Amino acid sequence: MGDAKDILGLPKLGERGSTEKRKTPKDAIKKPDGIHREVYALTGGLPPIMPTLDPVSIKKRTLPSKKISWQWLPFSTSARTDNLQLYHWVRIIDDSQPSGDYAFAKYNKVVDSIRYTDEEYNQLLVDSSWSREETDRLFDMCEQFDLRFIVIADRFTPPRTVEELKHRYYSAAKAILQARAGPNDDLSDHSFFKDSYNVNHEVERKKALNIILSQSRQQDREDAEVIAEARRITEARLKAKGLEESQVSTRAALHVDTTPARLPSPAATGDISFLSVPVTVASTTSVQVTPVPTPASAPSSTPVQTSAPIPASTTPVSAPPPVGPRPPRVYLRGAWLAQQIHSVVSPAGVRTSKRVDQMLEEYGVRSKPKVPTAAVCAEHLELRRELLNLIQLQKQVQYKENELAILRENPYAEIPATPNTPKRPHRGLENERVSTRATAVGAEFEGFPSSGKPSFHIILVQ
Amino acid sequence: MSQAVVGKKYGIEQTEVSAIQRMQRVKIARLVDDNDKKPMVGRVKGVEVTIPIVYGSISFWLGKKAAESTHKWTTYVRSATNEDLSVLVKKVVFQLHPSFEKPTRTIEAAPFELSESGWGEFEIGITIYFHPDVGEKPLELFHHLKLYADDESIPQTTKKPVVVESYDEIVLSEPMEASFGRLRNHPVARVTGNPSSPLVLPAAGESSLDRKGRDTKDHALVQWFMKHSEAEDLNLLTTARQQVWAAAAKLKKELGSLENEVLRIKATTH
């Protein structure tokens, strides 16, 4: 603030006195030497409670105790076989030079080259496709180029493939080693024997690699799809195995799966066919499973279908895998009952199931029994079935009353046949009701409703 | 999974898998399907073993002088008849609220219970693991821990706990032979059905587990255990069924008369 006033040139009352005053306190405050005033002011103008660094010591640095200098010296390395003398800078500490081999000599890896004698050649290595000269040349090159077969293949006359060269070299080397090895030597640890060279496999592998690398983007995508599909199918199958789905569907999958015996050519034209095959597998198995009235998921219909939706109940919701006719291996009866209820009631529709729950309440029965023993569960399930039946009966009675009312109004109205089975969802009935009214309104005298009698029979027999 | 199988078989890199995989897909599919066949061996067919259990919690109020933990509660899984469950159950894992230290508590010996002190109500996850020779997956249950009684007019007392128990039954259908021998003569289980396959079952008195001190008949809290009887439910259900049956019969009669009416009208007019 004082500085600002100075800049502005404004006279300040008692300015002189204050500047003088300022000088002395500044000197008084300036305690530390070695660091600047402002830096010291960062600590709040006071010495820190815990002296971290002695401010005096910051500027000084301990001089190294040893004497270090650098010298331009010759050196030798074990990696070189000639006696070439090279020079480099060497750090000298206290007049003593560092000892030891050149630091980078350890990186000079050498391949042990194998050479055979004439007898060995004649005994072990005579081969129909390889002449002596060629084999000699091969071995020379291997030594020269450190077994870099790509380079050797480029320079080899007559030109041979890399796989052929490798095959010849490795089999020859193995034979030689085996012959040379005494009964005590253990060759099984040698890399030639641990990872034996399989020429046919190598040829196949490189061919396959080539195919993949030369594939177009389109084919890449197709491949990815097929693989994903296969993975999904295997996952779904594993899930089915875990869920202990009935064996029928898995056997069906087996049959369908073994039929696509035609292998698509490596040119990947058959990819799409494979895509369709898993799909057909899915559809056949799903078709097989639907007749079984269960909320269970078909094993391969869709990738992710978890176990059947257990109706919302806060207490025991142990999840035994849902299977229609056969119960899971281990389960809690309460939860199992809940699933059975669901499978019985759900085909009838949401409204009906709510109605069933309502009626249970009217009779004072809990929608989930408190003590689910076998007998209680059986009774409960039966009760629900009977309630369903009752509801359907009520609907039929209503329908009949409607029919009666229409007939009374218009005795010649044609009432279409209603193949009324208890299993049919109530929605169907409503449609019929609407249609009868429509026909009644616009009805003409069409004569005897010939369809009448059969429908009545069906209803009565029920 | 099939990719891994192929990879291992031929020791080739992942990038090459797809090409070779296409050529080998049929073989692999066959492999997988063979593994899918369920092992039905070693199971007693036509038999069901029922083990009635009760699980729940008992919670005591610790009084006015209690600190932050106002209640001491015990959650447990016990046999409905207070028998020893360890013949079937290997361990029970209680999953508590994450605010508890080490919320996953494993109880490996009977009685399968856990006592803690706290102030909050939460849902306890109970997983029952069976012995390996039962060969089944663990069962999961949930129980809401109740500390405060419903009736708020009655002041809390340290003498009477809040007890919530739920009854359920573990059903082993077509159990493994190994465990069946052990279970069939143990009072904890009830066996229904007739074994359809010829079995060589161990003799009746061979339950080698020492039952002393493992059942809950003399448990400290046994006085608070609730009685679970199917009688009430059964009576309710039978009465309801009778009523429903009666209503259905009435409706059928009505339907019949309506039918006749319709027929009559049709007959007169046609």
TrEMBL record, chain A:
Bias-annotated ranges (Low complexity):
289-317
The residue ranges of the Myb-like domain are: 126-175
Residues of the signal sequence? none
The ranges of region (Disordered) come to 1-29, 289-326
**Where's it found, cell-wise?**
Nucleus
Picking any one GO molecular function of the record gives: transcription corepressor activity
| GO CC terms in record | NuA4 histone acetyltransferase complex; Swr1 complex
What are the entry keywords?
Chromatin regulator, Nucleus, Transcription, Transcription regulation
Where does this protein have compositionally biased stretches of type Basic and acidic residues?
13-29
- Any one of the GO BP annotations: DNA repair
Is this entry keyworded Transmembrane helix? Answer: no
Q: What is this protein identified as? A: Myb-like domain-containing protein
Organism whose genome encodes this protein: Ceratodon purpureus (Fire moss)
**Record lineage:** Eukaryota, Viridiplantae, Streptophyta, Embryophyta, Bryophyta
TrEMBL record, chain B:
The domain of life for this entry's organism is Eukaryota
Q: Which InterPro entries match?
A: YEAST_sf, YEATS, YEATS_dom
UniProt GO BP: regulation of DNA-templated transcription
Where is it mostly found? Answer: nucleus
Q: Where is the YEATS domain?
A: 43-186
Its GO CC terms? nucleus
Pfam families, sorted: YEATS
Q: Which residues form a coiled coil?
A: none
Q: Any idea where this protein resides?
A: Nucleus
Q: Which keywords does the record carry?
A: Nucleus, Transcription, Transcription regulation
Official protein name in the record: YEATS domain-containing protein
